[in-house]
Each structure stands twice: as structure tokens, then as C-alpha cells.
Design goal:
Order of helices and strands: EHHHEHHEHEEHE
Strand order of the largest sheet: 4-5-3-6
Helix content: 25-40%
Distance between the termini: 30 Å
Number of helices: 7
Strand content: 15-25%
Structural class: alpha+beta
Length: 233
Amino acid sequence: MAATFNVNAEAGLKKLDGYLLSRSYISGYQASKDDLAVYSEFSVAPPSTCTNVARWYNHIDALLKLSGVTAPGQGVKVLSSIVPETSTTDVAEAPAADDDDDSDVDLFGEETEEEKKAAEERAAKAKASTKKKESGKSSVLLDVKPWDDETDMVKLEEAVRSIKMEGLLWGASKLMPVGYGIKKLQIMMTIIDDLVSVDTLIEDHLCVEPANEYIQSCDIVAFNKICKFLQLV
């Protein structure tokens, strides 16, 4: 089945860029009339952001400056928003290429093993870079203890929740009696493991100014990984 591209539309250009990710030519392992068909639709060189299209375009452009393209190709359909001005009569009268002319220089030989390997490596790198990294999460229960029974526990909790960082989400809390009229704050938090270190949170945020005006110490009561259940279809 022939490939179809519209290089004058952004979506079509992206489609072609993805198509050329693991290919050096539009069809087969050497330049053909399919490459010419697509190449001719570009009024200007493609943007460098489309790395695969730009690589292919520069290669075909260089080859065309040196020699003609004679390989028959496999057939390709090109959608274009620009109406071509080519006369069908001129095409019909154009002389056929002489397949038996051994004097032509073939600059479009078989793709080398190095080129095939390079194309495979590009595809592997692109696949690896687009793979989303799954970062684990944990649920942590903290004991936050005040200095004494005169510590304002409302202010203490406000000091705790005022600490903001990427990957940290404060949850439910409650006051628990310790003794002699003193209460401690128990508070839940959910963290993204790759972004938040509980030890750093306690040492560098909860037990230093200004939070330590109310907080005497912090302890980890529970630390549980949040499991992900994957449904296989």
C-alpha cells in the first residue's frame, strides 16, 4: 500500500518525520522516484525541528545535484494544497529512461550496514527518550512535637503546611495527647519519591527557622509505598 503525505500541512510534515525515523528513503533501501515525488512538494527546505525530514531532504538534495534518480520506486501518493501546473501532455511526451544505458553513474547504491545500524540506533534513542518515566509515591505519617503545653498548635500546623515543594502534598491531621497537657500533631503527607526526601524535609525545613519557633522535633511514624495496580487488556 502506497504511503501518503501532505508536506504542506503541519500534521503531514510530522507524519513524514515519524515515517523517516527508521528509514533513509521513502521506499526501499535506495533513492527512487518516490523520493523525488515527495521532494518536489517542498517549496522550501523543511524546518530543522523535523530532524528526520531535514536529514532526508538534505541527502536527496545533495544526490540530485550530482546525478539523476533512476530507481523505479514502489509508488507513493503526495497530498498537496498547491495546484500543480504540470501539463499532462508534456508528461506523456517525455522520453522514457534508458534502463540499458550502462554509462549512467549509479550514486544510489544499496544502503550500507553502517547506515542501517545508524537508522536503528536513531529509532532506539527516540523510543527511549519518549518513554515516560514512572516515579513511585509514598504515604508518610509524621509526629510533630511542640516545645511545651503553651505552644500554639494552630500556629504549629500552619508552619508545617506552609512548607511547599514539588512532589509534596499535605493530607489529614489531628492532635494527639502526649502527657502533662502537651499535645502533638500527627499529619499525613504524600510524596513523590524522586522529588522529596523526608529526612531533608525534616532537617532543612521543619526543624529550622521559622518553623522551629513552634516545632521541637519531628519523627516518622509510618512510611508506606503506594502501589500501582496495572490492568492488562
